[in-house]
Amino acid sequence: MTYLDHAATTPVLPSALEAFVREASRLGNPSSLHSDGRRARAVLETSRERIAHALGAESAEVILTAGGCEADTLAVVGAARAARRADPGRTRAVTSAVEHHAVLESVHALADEGGEAVLVPVGADGVIDLAALEAEIAEHAARTGVVSVMWANNETGAIQPVAEVVELVRRHGGNAVAVHSDAVQAVGHVPVDFGASGLDALSLSGHKLGAPAGIGALLAQRTLPLAPVVLGSGQERGVRSGTVPVALATALAVAVEHAVATLEAERARLVPLRDELAAGVLALVPGARLNGPVGPAAGDGGGRLPGHVHLTFPGADVDALLFVLDAAGISASAGAACVAGVTQPSHVLLAAGDDERDARSVLRLTLGSTTTADDVARVLAVLPDAVERARSAGRVAARRG
Ligand code: PLP
Fold first, then answer.
1. Domain count of the chain?
2. Is the distance from the beta carbon of residue 248 to the nearest atom of ligand 1 less than 6 Å?
3. Residue 141: CATH number of its domain
4. Smallest CA separation from ligand 1 atom 10, residue
5. For each of the chain's 401 residues, which pLDDT tens digit applies?
6. Ligand 1 centroid – CA 9 distance (Å)
7. Last residue of some domain: 260, 286, 301?
8. Of 223, 243, 260, which closes a domain?
9. Is the pTM of this model over 0.70?
10. Aminotransferase class V domain: which residues (predicted)?
């Protein structure tokens, strides 16, 4: 099998699995006061410290969550609600049009409760329009509770100018506006230093970097007011209730440390494979387009994540394409959400100016720890014919209306 869907989830690192199994076989709720509980608490706090240390944060800034969606919701909804409670005039939640649905749905939920959702446009390369963001913040800083701009896009792999976002929000809004970044696709793949970033909050997710699914974290400065979103017994600074899964936290610590330690070597290994794959597809498949920041300005992975190849094949039925690839032993992704079995046009490509038809005909190939040159060769051998068959299926579907 050739697995090219690492951005969806990536294999669990053996040492993370080992740490998980070892800890899962032990007893103790970290909130209990007896010795089993105290032992579990000590393991949890060590894991928290290791995660913090690997990412330039302090232990007290690590709020463990069930994953990326939960961390995003806590950051965006939690910060916006807290800001509004302190100052009812702070109603605006500002984000980019290409965010993950966890952030987009959060700002829409805030709008449903009387807030204002502002989606800042992106350019044709999917990168946020900083001038538009600056115009928005300059005019409305006093009415803004939270700004959330992702570190890297999950579909195109476009890396967003987070440092510039922080700088301009601080310049116009000081520290009163919370700045969050969804770094779920970035952590472990490009350098991320929470302390140096100047962000108030940053989301990450374990199963994107070698931990099992079901664990993630929100890094949040201690001074950031957050209204709790998951209510209950008050764990995790009182903003994320629920018994913390110590075994998963341990696995997350092992995986984050490993991903950060091997980041540069993996980047140096993957970028040439990524570029060979992209160049091969463009040469072999008529009409294929590569999405996201491309060309010299994108540098050696600086503009795009090292493992992302996001392609448009105009006229192709992407469900048929995935089916043909799967039959050939290649796991890939539609690059756009699938709702009730129907592939939706990619909101990321629509925001970048594509029409609905093209925004449906997309394929995301994401490379990772298991990817080799043989995988790239295999995809290049199969893809031209697979796209041709998917285009035939697309013509049949178009005729049927
Ligand atoms: N944010 C981004 C950018 C993602 O790519 C994902 C997962 O695909 C998420 C958030 C959600 O993460 P999780 O699956 O851990 O909830």
1. 2
2. no
3. 3.40.640.10
4. 68
5. 999 999 999 999 999 999 999 999 999 999 999 999 999 999 999 999 999 999 999 999 999 999 999 999 999 999 999 999 999 999 999 999 999 999 999 999 999 999 999 999 999 999 999 999 999 999 999 999 999 999 999 999 999 999 999 999 999 999 999 999 999 999 999 999 999 999 999 999 999 999 999 999 999 999 999 999 999 999 999 999 999 999 999 999 999 999 999 999 999 999 999 999 999 999 999 999 999 997 655 545 559 999 999 999 999 999 999 999 999 999 999 866 665 567 789 999 999 999 999 999 999 999 999 999 999 999 999 999 999 999 999 988 888 87
6. 9
7. 260
8. 260
9. yes
10. 2-379
